[in-house]
């Protein structure tokens, strides 16, 4: 209110066009005050000056819009960085540099790698079917730590959908006072075609949800002498509707 009163007093003191001309800088350069005064007292400006004021106002508005957009982008980046920090270092979903190696990770829409004859024969022996290639996985240090006892598989790395609607609903359930994710009972075949009873759980993270193979994962690691950077292709298939996962060494 005080600012409006002061502004009206200022306009009242500039009683005519000549007075404003004397007070205005030479040559005329519009300022923020002109944007405020010109709608209240347009008679104090020539047509050319009003055009200059209008152009200046449009320019100022564009600059403020761009500044706000830049600040919003920075805010999103800060939020993204905070989310990434909440995920274990090895599981962070970030752009990766090209790696010079002979094995190329399959991408969505490309042909799945070949499944060896010994694996196909074993699936046939079990009367299995609905074979799907799920993902490429390189083992991180966190996948091998015994106190973790789990293999993590980020959901955004999967090549296809492999769960039924009922199984997905099961993984969304939480149990106990600490609301821990409920597990899905499955069977896992290791690279030597040995069977392990395990659980598949879904953990919700900020960047991407993660499927984890838990319970007896340490036994799989020990039996196969898995090391850091070991590369795996992971497949799924079903035996009488029951879910199996298959680990293939590269």
UniProtKB/TrEMBL annotation:
<keyword id="KW-0804">Transcription</keyword>
<keyword id="KW-0805">Transcription regulation</keyword>
<dbReference type="GO" id="GO:0003677">
    <property type="term" value="F:DNA binding"/>
</dbReference>
<dbReference type="InterPro" id="IPR015300">
    <property type="entry name" value="DNA-bd_pseudobarrel_sf"/>
</dbReference>
<dbReference type="GO" id="GO:0005634">
    <property type="term" value="C:nucleus"/>
</dbReference>
<dbReference type="InterPro" id="IPR005508">
    <property type="entry name" value="At2g31720-like"/>
</dbReference>
<protein>
    <recommendedName>
        <fullName>B3 domain-containing protein</fullName>
    </recommendedName>
</protein>
<dbReference type="Pfam" id="PF03754">
    <property type="entry name" value="At2g31720-like"/>
</dbReference>
<keyword id="KW-0238">DNA-binding</keyword>
<keyword id="KW-0539">Nucleus</keyword>
């Amino acid at each position: 209110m005080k600012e409006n009163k002061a502004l009206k007093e200022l306009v009242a003191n500039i009683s005519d066009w000549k007075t404003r001309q004397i007070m205005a800088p030479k040559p005329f350069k519009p300022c923020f005050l002109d944007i405020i005064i010109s709608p209240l007292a347009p008679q104090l400006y020539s047509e050319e000056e009003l055009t200059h004021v209008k152009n200046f106002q449009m320019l100022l508005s564009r600059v403020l819009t761009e500044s706000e957009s830049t600040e919003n982008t920075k805010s999103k980046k800060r939020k993204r960085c905070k989310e990434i920090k909440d995920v274990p270092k090895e599981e962070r979903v970030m752009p990766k540099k090209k790696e010079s190696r002979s094995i190329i990770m399959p991408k969505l829409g490309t042909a799945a790698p070949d499944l060896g004859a010994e694996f196909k024969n074993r699936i046939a022996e079990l009367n299995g079917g609905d074979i799907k290639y799920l993902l490429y996985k390189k083992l991180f240090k966190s996948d091998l730590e015994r106190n973790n006892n789990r293999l993590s598989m980020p959901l955004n790395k999967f090549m296809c959908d492999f769960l039924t609607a009922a199984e997905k609903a099961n993984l969304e359930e939480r149990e106990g006072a600490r609301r821990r994710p409920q597990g899905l009972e499955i069977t896992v075949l290791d690279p030597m075609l040995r069977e392990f009873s395990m659980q598949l759980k879904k953990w919700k993270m900020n960047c991407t949800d993660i499927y984890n193979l838990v319970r007896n994962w340490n036994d799989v690691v020990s039996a196969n002498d898995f090391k850091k950077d070991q590369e795996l292709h992971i497949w799924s298939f079903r035996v009488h509707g029951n879910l199996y996962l298959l680990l293939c060494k590269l």
